[in-house]
Design a protein that fits this description.
mainly alpha
Length: 247
C-alpha cells in the first residue's frame, strides 16, 4: 500500500514497486549535465503532478549519481561497512520473517520494525533485486542496503510516514549520507509545507542536527539487534530514547 507523495516525501518505500523505465545502464557514468537534466526533468514532473511517484526515484538516482563515489568510499572506509559487504548482509524477503519478528517482545527493534511494515502494508520483498541503475557490485550493495534499511530509519528515529515526518527524515538522511536528493527534497518539502505547518522548518533543522550527531546508520548491523530493546538501539545510535516527532 504505497503512500501518496503529496509533499515531495521520501521515495524509498513508496516507490519500490513502481516501474522505472528511464534509467541509464549505469547512471554514475553519465556526464554531469546529462544526469542533472534528467534529474530536474523528473523533479519537474513530480512538482507538476505529485501522483508521479516513480519520478521521485528517478530524480534521486540521477541527482545522487555524481556524488556516489564519495559515499561508497566513506562506507568502505569503515570496518563495519566492509564486514556488511563481506558477509553480504541483506534485509529482504529471503532473510526477514515478519511473523517471527512479531513474536519478539513488543519493546524490541524486531517487533517494532515488523509492526511498522505490517501496519502500512509494506514488505521487505520490494528490494530483493539489486539496483539496476549501477553496475559496480560495491555500489549496488550500498545502494541496496540503504533502500532495504530505510524503514528501519523510520523506526529508530521515530519519524512517521506523514509528509512532515518524511521531510524531516530527508533532512536527517542528508546529514547522514550527504545525498543531494535528500537536501533538495527536504528544502522543497519544507517550503511547500510552511503555510500549513509553520513548525516544519524548526523540525527540519532539528532533524539535520540529529543526523549530524547520530552514529552512522548506513553501517549499523541491524540484523544483530532484532531482540534488542528499541531504546537501547537508539542509545547505541545517539538518538533520544523515545525517538523524535516532526512538527
Amino acid at each position: 500500500m504505497p503512500r501518496k507523495l503529496d509533499d515531495l516525501t521520501s521515495p524509498i518505500d513508496q516507490l519500490a514497486t513502481s516501474p522505472i523505465d528511464q534509467l541509464a545502464t549505469d547512471a554514475t557514468k553519465l556526464p554531469a549535465h546529462v544526469r542533472w537534466r534528467r534529474a530536474l526533468t523528473a523533479l519537474a514532473k513530480v512538482m507538476a503532478n505529485p501522483e508521479k511517484t516513480d519520478q521521485v526515484l528517478v530524480f534521486s538516482i540521477y541527482a545522487n549519481a555524481g556524488s556516489m563515489p564519495t559515499r561508497i568510499e566513506r562506507f568502505f572506509s569503515t570496518e563495519e561497512g566492509r564486514r556488511l559487504y563481506d558477509e553480504h548482509r541483506m534485509i529482504d524477503s529471503r532473510t526477514i520473517d515478519l511473523d517471527a519478528l512479531l513474536t519478539l517482545p513488543a519493546n524490541t527493534l524486531g517487533h517494532a520494525y515488523a509492526t511498522f511494515l505490517r501496519s502500512r502494508g509494506l514488505t521487505p520483498a520490494v528490494f530483493d533485486a539489486p539496483p539496476s541503475e549501477v553496475n559496480d557490485p560495491r555500489i549496488q550493495y550500498v545502494v541496496q542496503r540503504l533502500r532495504q534499511t530505510h524503514d528501519l530509519w523510520h523506526v529508530v528515529t521515530g519519524y512517521d510516514t506523514d509528509p512532515a515526518s518524511e521531510v524531516a527524515l530527508q533532512a536527517f538522511t542528508f546529514a547522514q549520507v550527504r545525498a543531494p536528493s535528500s537536501a533538495i527534497l527536504a528544502t522543497l518539502g519544507t517550503l511547500r509545507a510552511l503555510r500549513q505547518r509553520p513548525g516544519v522548518a524548526r523540525s527540519v533543522v532539528a532533524s539535520l542536527r540529529l543526523g549530524l550527531r547520530a552514529a552512522p546508520l548506513p553501517i549499523f548491523p541491524w540484523e544483530d539487534h532484532w531482540a534488542t530493546p528499541l531504546h537501547e538501539v537508539r542509545a547505541l545510535l545517539g538518538i533520544p530514547a523515545a525517538g523524535v516527532k516532526a512538527s
